[in-house]
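Sorry to interrupt, but I need a hand with the structure work. Go ahead and set the record down below:
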Amino acid sequence: MSTLALAVHDSTTMLRRNLLHARRYPSLTLNLLLTPVMLLLLFVYVFGDAMSAGIGGGNRSDYIAYLVPGLLLMTIGSTTIGTAVSVSTDMTEGIIARFRTMAIHRGSILVGHVVGSVLQCVASVILVGAVGLAIGFRSTDATALEWLAALGLLALFATALTWIAVGMGLVSPNAEAASNNAMPLIFLPLISSAFVPVDAMPGWFQPIAEYQPFTPAIETLRGLLLGTEIGHNGWLATAWCLGLAALGYLWSTSVFNRDPR
């Protein structure tokens, strides 16, 4: 078997293993998924009228359209925390040490985690999107090409955050530490343009919200789904995704290839 065929075969095996774990132990994924769903319901039904009035005098349906794209990307951040925990668990419970002694492709272990996490992110986004549709979100102005671009952005963003989460899991001494280390993946959307426009924030706080990966990604996704202008946010979001993916990949592979701790 060639090196490429071996890598694909072993990566598929590791992917199947991780998906099986996710199916047998769904509590972590479901708990992380509840965060964006509860925030969506909270901001629509509790704060919806006040928030819509504060950002331009629209009605609740206008605020739903504004809110859902940000919550979809927040869902990705929440889901990847489970990846950090899963990787840390594998590293600390001895299974990785056993894999190192077996005749399997070394990189397939991380690839299995990454691909499995991206698939879980896609499933989570679909579920949160379904909740958004149920409470009134509509994307009538988006073309088929814009929908395709939106799906591509979500997949690229999930891949980037997953590699970062893998790195966090590898350097964490236990699952609890991995969960804590990955908390910025949930915290950053809270200080982005997910809930209110950057222009509505205090002047000293606007750079914090603007110069981070979630805001350009949210604005790009919002523009694609609602048919509004994207401006320079599309290039910024793509650059953030590619940069974070490259950083996460180099970090993760460097840590993983060290001598076992």
